[in-house]
Amino acid sequence: MKKNFIIEVIAKPSVLLGTRVGCPHFSTTCGRAPHALRGFAITLIAFFLLAAPAAITASELKRNHVSLLEGWSFGLGAGALGGGNISAGYRMPYNPDNPNNWMNKFVFRADFNTWAPFGGILENVFENIADDEIDDHRRPDGTIGFTGNITARNAEFNSSVTGRNLGVLVDFHPFTYTRGLKGFRVSGGYYFGSLDIGAAAAVDDLASKIPEYNNYFKWENVNIGGSIYAPMISGLEYGASVGIKHIRAEPKLTLRSTGPYVGIGWDVGLFSNLKMTFDAGVAFTKAHEMSITDNLDELDFTISSSTLTINIDGDPSIPSSVKGLLSDAIQSQLIANNVHDFTVDNNNITVNTAQLIEHNRSAIDSALDNVRADRDKAIIDVNKELKNYAFFPMVKIGFMWRF
């Protein structure tokens, strides 16, 4: 029965590789399955070829009234990039009547890693750091102050760490019967999965006050009858405020772990059947990927309606006889500078400063286009660099109980 099973698997590997049967679902070229499917099938064939004798041994153990758990092992652990680890494996029990049995050198193992136990903890750490930073910049009026004259009504930050992978592995113990080295093993197999590290930042009612009106409004003193007059101007501390209602950015780094795996490990006996396990290896994967989702492509600036007042009537340094002439001359200056949104009250002129910035709308839109271009270039550059790291390292430590 054992011989027939092995012959059938070897003679008909096309069934496991996805050729002929169901081929259109796997590839546009008949007889070729995707890379991941082929890797899984090859690992599966190796697993069954080596596990078949173990199954027969289990039957013999049952007939001899030995526990069916004999040879099985179960482990728990944690690792860098993998998170929490659960594993289950089978190794043919040692047979004193056949101490050189080569099958005893192999362990057939399923290995599952997930960030579920630790992802929430890391997310809370990152978010608490961000919240503290935001609170440090919060002003008495509740707004958040950034660099310069930039403020926001609210800012939020969230993070996410999610990932899992499953491996089908075969461990080989070359020194099974050598004292001091029997815990050493070489591992090979195939992993499926990925690790996603992401963040989401959002800012509401972002505003930037633009100082110095003179950058937009070229003020000229007025010569009347040989005398130079420069009326007082109020409201010159800041110019118009440029604002954004809502801006968000959600970057994400995807570390792929799907691919063939090779590694080494060591099992150290503690007491009874309890062992401490160490694993180090690498899965050879496709290139990792950085992406970002944001609303920069739909973003638009708004300009607040603030004012400045050219105070002619209330300026004691200006004679009453020239106040009307001075007001007319300044109004002509404004119109010449394409500033038409102003009102006149008793020779005093109040200007809506938003239009001063509106004349520079094209420059603002150009600046936003530059931000979008920088974002796109940064993503391309990062992904180009990630192509040099098409692998997923794994380092794990844990405990295992072997029956």
Question: How large is the share of residues in beta strands?
Answer: 35-45%
Structural domain tally = 1
Shape: rod-shaped
Q: Tell me the structural class.
A: alpha+beta
User: Level of helix content?
Assistant: 25-40%
Kindly state the mean pLDDT as a whole number?
78
* Strand arrangement, major sheet: 1-2-3-6-7-12-13-19
Taking all Cα atoms into account, the compactness measure Rg is 37 Å
> Which regions have little confidence, pLDDT < 50, spanning 5+ residues?
1-33
Distance between the termini: 27 Å
- Count of helical stretches: 8
Strand tally: 19
Explain this structure.
By secondary structure, this protein is of the alpha+beta class. It has one domain: Porin (Beta Barrel). Helices cover 29% and strands 41% of the residues. The chain is built from 8 helices and 19 strands. The strands form 3 sheets. The chain has an 8-stranded antiparallel β-barrel with strand order 1-2-3-6-7-12-13-19. The protein has a 4-stranded antiparallel β-sheet with strand order 10-16-18-17. It has a two-stranded antiparallel sheet with strand order 8-9. The longest helix has 29 residues. The radius of gyration is 37 Å and the shape is rod-shaped.
